[in-house]
Write a structure and sequence with these properties.
By secondary structure, the protein is of the alpha/beta class. It folds into 2 domains: about 1-200, Rossmann fold (3-Layer(aba) Sandwich), CATH 3.40.50.720; about 210-440, NAD(P)-binding Rossmann-like Domain (Rossmann fold), CATH 3.40.50.720. It has 19 helices and 14 strands. The strands form 3 sheets. Strands 3-2-1-4-5-6 form a 6-stranded parallel beta sheet, sandwiched between helices. The protein has a 6-stranded parallel beta sheet with strand order 11-10-9-12-13-14. A two-stranded parallel sheet has the order 7-8. Helix 10 runs parallel beside helix 13 (about 285-310) and helix 13 packs across helix 14. The longest helix is centred in the middle third of the chain and has 32 residues, at about 200-230. The relative contact order is 0.09. The model has no long low-confidence stretch (mean pLDDT about 95). The structure holds nicotinamide-adenine-dinucleotide. Nicotinamide-adenine-dinucleotide binds near residues 6, 35, 83 and 122.
């Protein structure tokens, strides 16, 4: 099938590459000229494991092109995937849907045949219905229809998640739209991927409800961490014991620095804001608490670091391991790690940051922090090392030899992933969040 993809960020570029890999002819469009130039040349504007290799392979087949012309992407295609950003609106908790609106308008203006416009961006419930109404008003000479197909990929596992999704959701208003989406994803459906068809509003809600649930689970265990600190209990053991209960499950139940990134924080805020607009704010009031618990984890990490170095950051050298919002990504949007680094810097610490992939993005956001190419350089003569993003590289540090790098062998493991005994045996003082002791 001939597909267009509008927006080639973390979601759109991966979607375009994966759809071409599945055999479709894809032309992807973005307003950002530098992204299009890089992608056309076979290099990725972001770090995503496996992406560069797959991009090179599908470009070589001739089934994928990138363009800065909406016309070139849209003309001749029968399905258009809208993958543009929906960031938090300045001065409000609501989502800014203007990029979706302009992408939608560009498709309608450029369409030269009948087609299905498929939203993949995460949007406030009701957006698809509104666009469907606008489409009816637009009186295009071609039969265009709206569908919503929310995306559940995780950065760091985006290729795997797109080629082997745990489910596909098709929000449609006609049999034709459902049939078209079944055709697009035919090989995934044949491989047994569960797929559900719903109305437009339900499909929009699936995505934000999933993110609200995950955020709540993380904040739940972080709330337990706060209680553990009060009574000198250990949230890591608590979490492990809870996780064995298969009604609860162990995933997303690691207490620590909390969630960040370009999705969860803005999505729960936008969901609450939308509920308010719909007169249902009571239903989602708890998400405000979920958000507050999450933000508090960052404050607690900073307070813990300050207390470990004696109550004052002035004159202290703090190494921060990790800048990305999570491992295997270079995304620093609303990154807890960078927030903590920046807060300690503002309080007078000499903050030295390392990340295996996210330094360039981090430097753009916080240019006044010091960045280093190796963990060892960042940690040289540190009074405290803060593990802020749980990259494998940090998990595999050998504490006995690393001890000679730092000035004082003490480490705040804000992700609670290091083996305490192993590090203590190597002469380190190891601190966590929610594990009692001096950081409580
Ligand atoms: P992003 O900021 O990385 O990419 C958005 C892209 O859209 C940018 O390259 C931008 O230049 C482009 N764009 C903006 N307006 C445009 C227009 N009118 N025409 C063409 N291109 C335009 O964002 P992202 O992380 O890819 O997220 C996109 C959407 O997908 C958001 O709604 C997000 O919530 C959702 N989502 C993201 C992920 C993820 O892991 N990143 C997962 C699931 C859903």
């Amino acid at each position: 099938m001939k597909l267009s993809v509008i927006g080639t960020g973390y979601l759109g570029a991966v979607h375009a590459v994966c759809m071409a890999h599945l055999g479709h002819e894809v032309v992807a469009y973005d307003t950002d000229a530098s992204k299009i130039a890089m992608l056309s040349a076979g290099s990725s504007p972001f770090y995503e494991p496996g992406f560069d290799e797959l991009l090179g392979a599908v470009l070589a087949t001739g089934r994928l092109r990138f363009t800065q012309s909406a016309d070139e992407a849209v003309s001749g295609a029968s399905v258009h995937f809208v993958c543009v950003g929906t960031p938090q609106m300045a001065g409000s908790d609501a989502a800014d849907v203007r990029y979706v609106d302009s992408a939608f308008k560009a498709v309608v203006a450029s369409a030269d045949c009948d087609g299905l416009i498929v939203g993949k961006s995460t949007v406030p419930v009701g957006t698809a219905q509104r666009l469907a109404a606008e489409l009816a008003e637009a009186s295009s000479p071609h039969a265009l229809e709206i569908a919503w197909n929310p995306e559940f990929l995780r950065e760091g596992k985006a290729i795997e998640d797109t080629l082997r999704p745990d489910r596909l959701v098709f929000g449609v208003t006609s049999e034709h739209a459902e049939k078209t989406l079944r055709q697009v994803y035919g090989s995934l459906i044949d491989a047994g991927t569960p797929h559900l068809t719903s109305d437009l509003a339900t499909s929009e809600l699936v995505k934000v409800a999933a993110n609200a649930f995950l955020a709540t689970k993380i904040s739940f265990i972080n709330a337990m961490a706060e209680v553990c600190d009060v009574v000198d209990a250990d949230v890591v053991l608590l979490s492990r014991a809870l996780g064995y209960d298969d009604r609860i499950g162990s995933r997303f139940l690691n207490a620590g620095l909390g969630f960040g990134g370009g999705c969860l924080p803005k999505d729960i805020r936008a969901f609450s804001a939308r509920a308010g607009e719909l007169g249902a704010s009571d239903a989602l009031r708890f998400l405000h608490e979920v958000d507050k618990i999450n933000v508090r984890q960052r404050e607690k990490a900073v307070a813990a670091a300050r207390s470990i170095v004696g109550g004052d950051f002035l004159g202290k050298s703090i190494a921060v391991l990790g800048a990305a919002f999570k491992p295997n990504s270079d995304d620093v949007r609303d990154s807890p790690a960078l927030n903590v680094a920046a807060a300690m810097h503002l309080m007078g610490a000499d903050v030295r940051v390392h990340d295996p992939k996210a330094i360039a993005n981090a430097r753009k956001r916080f240019p006044t922090l010091s960045y280093f190419d190796t963990a060892e350089d960042a940690c040289r003569n540190a009074d405290l090392t803060v593990l802020a993003t749980e990259w494998d590289e940090y998990r595999s540090i050998e504490p006995a030899s690393f001890r000679s790098v730092v000035r004082v062998p003490r480490l705040l493991d804000t992700r609670n992933v290091l083996d305490r005994q192993y590090w203590s045996d190597a002469g380190w003082q190891l601190y966590g969040l929610g594990r009692g002791g001096p950081t409580a």
